Structure formats: structure tokens, C-alpha cells
């Protein structure tokens, strides 16, 4: 029988028992089983065991306002402004022309002229022809006719040919004679108000030296 070649003599080293073990390719897995030295974090008392799991406070999730709610919030200021604008009372100047003259202008004018010392003022409001010789238009227009001091001695006329306080206006006056030349009235004012219409006529009569101590 031929001798078997000794592995050691052939230069080969026989594997040891340790080399025959196949290395594990799996990673160590954590388990819920407590070790001999570490208590179970879930079962241990947090006051006695620093390794015990502690509850973490989670802040409540903030929800974004719905689109409908956001739209309602945005509409509130606009709705309030619209309501305030709607509730605002119209000015006296927005009244119909005749209504404004009779209800607002004539009483205010009489009061203002009375404060200047004139106590016997007679005022009327009528639609008639302009009482000036040579006046081109023969059409009637609304006029305010005022007179005092022995009725008819001093008289003035305020004309509204367009039936609009914002439109063209004219003025004339006389002292028992024919009316003076027709002149423009408050033509430089951009917007006519009740106060301005009263002040303008009082100022014009004062310039005629018909008021106060004149």
C-alpha cells in the first residue's frame, strides 16, 4: 500500500475547529428582553431608573384655516366699509333743485340776512322771465326775488337758468329803478354748497352797501 502524503509535509495546514465555523452575516438584533444588568425601560420606574423611557410632550398640530374661513375674514372689512357708505345720509345739495331751494336755501338765506340787521326781508321763489331790458333770452327761469325797506325799494334777483345750483347763475339788483346789468354769480367756485350759496349772496348785498349800517 502506498503511503498517504502527510498534509503537514505537503505544506498544507489542517483547518482548526474555529476555522470550520461559518461566520454569521446577520447584524445583531435588538430585542425587548432585558439584559442581566439593564432593567426593562418600559417596566422600570422613571424615578428609580434613569434609563426608563420618558414620555415626550407633542405640541398640538396647528391646522391652517380653511379657504372659506379666510375668505370670510377678508370680506369683513370690505363689508363694514360698504355698510358705512350705504348708511351715510345724502347731502342737502343732492336734493332736487326746487326742493333744495324751498326747504334749505331760502330759510338759511333769510336767517343770514336777518343777522345783518334786515328785519323786513320778503323773499319769493318763482319761475319767470328775466326782468332786464335787452336780455336775449325770452324764456323763463327760476329766480329768487328778495326785497326790503318799503317793499320794492331795494330788490335783488338770483337767477338759475339751468335749474341746477352747480350750473350757471346770475345776479341783478335795483333800488326802485330798472334792474342793474345781469352779472355772473359764483362762477369761480368748483363746487357749490348751501353755505357757499348763502355766503356769496350776503357778501354781494354787503358790497352793494345794503346790509348792516350801510
Automatic annotation (TrEMBL):
The lineage of its organism: Bacteria, Bacillati, Cyanobacteriota, Cyanophyceae, Nostocales. This is DUF2996 domain-containing protein. Pfam families: DUF2996 (PF11210). InterPro entries: DUF2996. Residues 60-77 have a biased composition (Basic and acidic residues). Residues 1-10, 18-38 have a biased composition (Polar residues). Residues 1-89 are annotated as: Disordered.
Amino acid at each position: 500500500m502506498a503511503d498517504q502524503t502527510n498534509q503537514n509535509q505537503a505544506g498544507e495546514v489542517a483547518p482548526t475547529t474555529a476555522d470550520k465555523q461559518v461566520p454569521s452575516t446577520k447584524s445583531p438584533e435588538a430585542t425587548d428582553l432585558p439584559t442581566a444588568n439593564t432593567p426593562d425601560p418600559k417596566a422600570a420606574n422613571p424615578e428609580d431608573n434613569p434609563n426608563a423611557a420618558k414620555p415626550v410632550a407633542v405640541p398640538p398640530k396647528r391646522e391652517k384655516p380653511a379657504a372659506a374661513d379666510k375668505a370670510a375674514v377678508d370680506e369683513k372689512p370690505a363689508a363694514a366699509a360698504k355698510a358705512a357708505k350705504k348708511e351715510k345720509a345724502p347731502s342737502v345739495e343732492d336734493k332736487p333743485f326746487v326742493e333744495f331751494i324751498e326747504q334749505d336755501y331760502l330759510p338759511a338765506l333769510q336767517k343770514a340776512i336777518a343777522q345783518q340787521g334786515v328785519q323786513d326781508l320778503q323773499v319769493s321763489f318763482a319761475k319767470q322771465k328775466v326782468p332786464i331790458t335787452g336780455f336775449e333770452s325770452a324764456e323763463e327761469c327760476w329766480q329768487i326775488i328778495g326785497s326790503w325797506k318799503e317793499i320794492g325799494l331795494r330788490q335783488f334777483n338770483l337767477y338759475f337758468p339751468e335749474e341746477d345750483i352747480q350750473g350757471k347763475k346770475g345776479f341783478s339788483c335795483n333800488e326802485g329803478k330798472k334792474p342793474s346789468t345781469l352779472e355772473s354769480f359764483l362762477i369761480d367756485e368748483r363746487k357749490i354748497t348751501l353755505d357757499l350759496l348763502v355766503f356769496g349772496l350776503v357778501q354781494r348785498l354787503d358790497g352793494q352797501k345794503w346790509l348792516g349800517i350801510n
